[in-house]
Amino acid sequence: MTTQVKDFYTAVKERRTIYTLSKESPVADERIQEVVEHAVKHTPTAFNSQGARAVVLLNDHHDKLWNMTTETLKEIVPGDKFESTQERMDGFKNAYGTVLFFEDMSIVEGLQEQMPVFADNFPLWAQQSNGMLQYVIWTSLEQEGFGASLQHYNPLIDEKVKSEWNIPDSWKLIAQMPFGKPAAPAGEKDFQPVESRVQIHK
Amino acid sequence: MTTQVKDFYTAVKERRTIYTLSKESPVADERIQEVVEHAVKHTPTAFNSQGARAVVLLNDHHDKLWNMTTETLKEIVPGDKFESTQERMDGFKNAYGTVLFFEDMSIVEGLQEQMPVFADNFPLWAQQSNGMLQYVIWTSLEQEGFGASLQHYNPLIDEKVKSEWNIPDSWKLIAQMPFGKPAAPAGEKDFQPVESRVQIHK
Fold first, then answer.
1. pLDDT band with cut points at 50, 70 and 90 for residue B4
2. Which chain B residues have a beta carbon less than 8 Å from that of A61?
């Protein structure tokens, strides 16, 4: 889609959580839409059920999301701990946009009715597939010069989000990904010994 | 890591489910181990908890997995429907190897004790993160010239797998990915209109 894109392994290696983001974009908004649509189209889903959904919020919509999240947290976080919460929320709000990830639960329920033998599995496979989509969009945004992180203020904000952006009732909010131009590099990352995580039998 | 690797977007677009696989490998077994370890190392996990696990089965180990899966299914699939099951199992057995995906539930439980406010979320985030790892390994294997598909015979085979390969008790089996040299192209894939899956508010 563009020419400055990394090879697959480099993209995997260099994808990181970036918290310090600015309200700038290295690309046109149409390009953001294009890479999100590309990810949604090509990321696999159980039985090609295509239940994953993405909602991109930019400009006032992005600010509104983090304002409503801040207000929601203010109601439940003790007053003496709210300062650090406010700082975190200001950080996300200072980014360029946010991708909201959903699963359309009507798709999951349809699969459960069609194939009752896998009824317990479909909700788990939807979570796995949604994780794949989060990963592909995260890494895609990085190809475009953005940094991003993955946040989870669901289910606290679900009702407000659905009402503000007229989201279908069957869409369940799974994650929020603020993104913007990186204003500071990723932090250090610890790795456990890979031998404790991978076995090979040959 | 190699030079014939696709750019990120092309890798995303071209990753497909490949069922017809041969018992050949385009690369050395050490290279398979290397790309699996690279994926496990760099795929993100909630709070960098690194609970995802991968076990690669090659040669007799791979054959044994599909023999034991076939035997397990023979006990529960009605006799008149077993022929198609046997054919499916023979297809997987005819591949070069299998990656087993696990989550170490002791990591999830540790997080639940440390951060009880997110206790209900950690198992879901582990599923999402495991999905990310499945995706990265799937797409990595394709960079090396393999085809792969994602299968789920858990929990039916969990106990036999754990006992055969001495898997720690706390590792929960999530998915199985048979891979081999593609012997037939991917099938047709239907795509829903992307407008029904992605919204942008700007």
1. confident
2. 201-202
- Within-domain flag for B121: yes
Is the CB of A36 less than 8 angstroms away from the CB of B9?
no
Tell how strand B171-182 and strand A198-201 pair up: unpaired
Q: What is the tally of structural domains in chain A?
A: 1
- Summarised one tens digit per residue, pLDDT across range A61-83 is 999 999 999 999 999 999 999 99
Of B35, B41, B192, the CB nearest to A191: B41
- What CATH number should be reported for the domain holding residue A112? 3.40.109.10
Only one residue has tokens 């696999």, namely A44
- Of all residues in chain A, the one with the smallest CA distance to B33 is A200
Per residue in A165-194, pLDDT (tens digit) is 999 999 999 999 999 999 999 999 999 999
Q: Domain range for residue B146?
A: 8-186
CA B189 to chain centre: 20
Residue of A136, A108, A117, A114 whose CA lies nearest to A49: A108
| Whether B140 contacts B38, CB under 8 Å | yes
